[in-house]
Specification:
3 helices, Rossmann fold, 5 strands
Length: about 150
């Protein structure tokens, strides 16, 4: 969002920029209009517009929070785009804060979870918890990565 209501979004964006620079990759940022706390609606509406326009440079989208990503999952479904890692999937959508509803989306939302104090080191080795999600609910696991 261009003007995020949650200040953590700015910290996450800065951490992403720093990590991409540190690893020699060009960052790609899409900021959309939207204010307030209706993240799912903003993700569905504005993220859907970006998906429909083919605006993303890669097939993986990292949202600043899980609630925006949940909205984008909905938009992808409406556009007939399969999300995930399986056969026929055309894109991946991930969030960053392990919202309790993220494991109940279809497919389960991939997310990165870590304490805010760790965000500047997201892409370098640091203690954090990563959710390893599968299409099959029985195979879903959570692993701590150090």
């Amino acid at each position: 969002m261009k003007t995020p209501s949650n200040p953590n979004a700015n910290k996450r964006r800065q951490a992403y920029l720093e990590a991409m620079a540190r690893h020699g990759f060009a960052p790609h940022i899409h900021q959309v209009p939207g204010e307030g706390w209706k993240f799912e609606e903003i993700g569905a509406t504005e993220g859907g517009k970006l998906m429909a326009a083919g605006a993303f440079e890669t097939d993986t989208v990292l949202c600043s929070n899980d609630r925006l990503a949940i909205g984008m999952l909905s938009a992808a479904y409406e556009l007939g785009m399969q999300v995930g890692h399986g056969k026929g999937c055309v894109m991946r959508i991930a969030g960053q804060d392990d919202h309790p509803f993220s494991r109940y989306t279809c497919p389960p939302l991939t997310h990165h979870r870590t304490g805010l104090w760790r965000h500047p080191r997201i892409v370098q080795p640091a203690p954090c918890s990563v959710s390893i999600e599968s299409e099959n609910p029985a195979d879903r696991t959570r692993r701590d990565v150090v």
